[in-house]
Amino acid sequence: MANKQRLGIIYGGKSSEHEVSIHTALSIIKAVDKARYDVLPIYIQVTGQWVEGSWVKEEPQHVDELRLSPEVYAAPDVFALKEKLDVIFPVIHGPNGEDGTLQGFLELIDVPYVGSGVLGSALGMDKVMMKEVFGNADIPQGAYRSYVRSRLQDGIDEVCREVEQSLGFPCFVKPANMGSSIGISKAKDQASLKKALLFAAKFDRKVIVEEFISGRELEIAVLGNDDPKTSVVGEIVSSNEFYDYEAKYKSDGTRLDIPAHVPQSVVDRMKELAVNAFLSLDCSGLSRVDFFWDEENDKLYINEINTLPGFTPFSMYPMLWKEAGVSYPELIDRLISLAGERCREKKENELVAESFYE
Question: Would strands 87-90 and 5-12 be described as parallel, antiparallel, or unpaired?
């Protein structure tokens, strides 16, 4: 087929979500329509070394097949990827992949890519800056405080007293820049708060402390660029005390209810707030927006936006769209199309700039 697109998938990376990324890449490679795409796997090892595979001719069956050996595959000339590929699907979760750094590199080499750009990715990863933008957009959210690691080292007891006075207990402590619920703790008193702060600070130089909101955990998927659409609403029912890494990837007691059993009025408000959140951060392509619903008082609070959500067929984002009538392969096609659309839009900026100096 002469018009097949050359699709690169960049996966792996140096973050603690390395294994999650490999599973995502495997799922996409197995699901993508080989009649429409030639697929080139590009693996970033935990050491940071880039390793290029060969064009996929047979379906990989296991993640081990995507842990490419540098002894077998050469390191790619990353600046030549523009000549090899028509579009790239980056699926590196967490820092150095989802935070705008990889997106900035792809901008420099001028290759269309799936997902949010530099700004949207950076804001979506940094929970503190994300909440600053949400506050400016009047999107309801819980109270929070943020601290850098040096502040904790110099006066953690003072920080604990400040948190207790402003937020109270229980509260949640998180690394500001991390995904998959890694590094998150629920603090119930000053002793557990101190432990939680030090634990979160292992993963990022900045931590965020959020007030506890008693509510049901609801999620909705967003797809699009300037005119995004929303999926059905899903609910996470976790057997753990909160939806941490263990609950996401290892617990058999976590249940995903799709669609969620909530009133239509809640669904409608979530759709509106999710689109507002998506646009306020200048996101594109895909995002999953997470909320707490205080059922007793009928109040919605945004928790966070995830600009590169889990993307296996059994992850919440694809499952929400499947319930809405969009299959996994079709979802991949739409995201690739949206990447091309956003790239063409950026080219218009260049034309405007050139005409300005004529």
Answer: parallel
